[in-house]
Amino acid sequence: MHDAKLALSEEWDKTFPQSSRVSHKKVTFHNRYGITLAADMYTPENASGRLAALAVAGPFGAVKEQASGLYAQTMAERGFLTIAFDPSYTGESGGEPRYVASPDINTEDFCAAVDFLSVQDNADPGKIGIIGICGWGGMALNTAAIDTRIRATVTSTMYDMSRVTANGYFDAMTPDDRWKLRKVLNDQRTADYRSGTYAPAGGLPQEAPEDAPFFVKDYPVRRKASPFRAGI
To answer: Please, how many CA atoms are within 13 Å of residue 202, restricted to the half-sphere of its CB?
Structure first.
């Protein structure tokens, strides 16, 4: 049993121009947690036979209309069948509450994307790869470690997200700092349970300031990518 049918936008609503060398359509698939995921599928024009296929996701908190879609479309121009998908709880994909994250569920999202590609008539199940951008590079590595169907894995990341979470930027966090952070996060769980809501754990502003770097300004274009909540 999985989510009800999703309401998907059929307009070209990406942050990048549409390629004339690639055909595009919306698709859905589901993971083993019963969550229906929305994706953009990109297919090389005039392609024939079974193609090597790629699933793309990231950055953390972003949606498929941004970087992952551009990566997917570009790789389709180079001959791959590709999908860029919204992770569970994000964008057009299903799952409640909205805008939370889980390493287990998000790793499963990548496995589910491989499930989907494996059964496509125009995909070669022996030539499936994944691309994880920014924070989703970690999810890609998690998936590659457990899913033997994946033949190639590429990550495009600025830093080791797990290390930054554990040690802080430039390893500046002390053991005492780490304990205080865990206490804050778990105290917030109590407050959330009491209130029946989930407090945002920070994120991007609704309107980027004028002096914001370009990668911050790019995010708010699609506000389906909202500040994420603590996923512990």
So the answer is: 2
The span from the CA of 35 to the CA of 225, in Å, is: 18
pTM of the entire predicted model: 0.86
Q: Hey, what are 7's tokens? A: 């309401």
Residue 210: is it exposed, middle or buried by C-beta count within 10 angstroms (0-12/13-18/19+)? exposed
Question: Is beta strand 36-44 parallel, antiparallel or unpaired with respect to 150-156?
Answer: unpaired
Element (H or E) spanning 35, and its range? none
Residues 6+ apart with CB under 8 A from 111: 31, 32, 143, 146, 147
Residue pLDDT, tens place only, 191-206: 999 999 888 766 666 6
The tokens describing 102, both together, are: 């889980």
Strand segments, DSSP code E, in the chain are: 22-30, 36-44, 51-57, 81-85, 123-133, 150-156
How far, CA to CA in Å, does 117 sit from each of 22, 110, 148, 190, 203? 17, 11, 14, 40, 32
Rounded to an integer, what distance in angstroms lies between the CA atom of residue 61 and that of residue 219?
9
Q: What are the pLDDT digits (tens) for 131-166? A: 999 989 999 999 999 999 999 999 999 877 778 878
